Amino acid sequence: MKIMIRRTSAGLSAYVPKKDLEEPIVDVETEDLWGGTVTLRNGWRLVLPKLSRDTPLPITVQARKIPDED
Fold first, then answer.
1. What superfamily does domain 2-66 belong to in CATH?
2. What span, in angstroms and rounded, lies between the C-alpha atoms of 19 and 15?
3. Which stretches does DSSP call E strand in 1-70?
4. Reported pTM
5. Where are the domains of the chain?
6. 17-43: per-residue pLDDT in tens?
């Protein structure tokens, strides 16, 4: 799914246009954000592509949602 990641005054945020959903990013797997997973406040976990550490924000990227664990 395509998501837009941007920096807000409260931290990083992810916007999912197809769902008209914007949620804060509450956890990141890798220090530089790219190439790992992020967790949104609503519980969604997304795998981000591997990009350069100095990639400017805001940016739209292709991310993969990790299915919920039961």
1. NifT/FixU-like (2.40.50.240)
2. 9
3. 2-8, 11-16, 21-28, 37-40, 45-47, 59-62, 64-66
4. 0.90
5. 2-66
6. 999 999 999 999 998 899 999 999 999
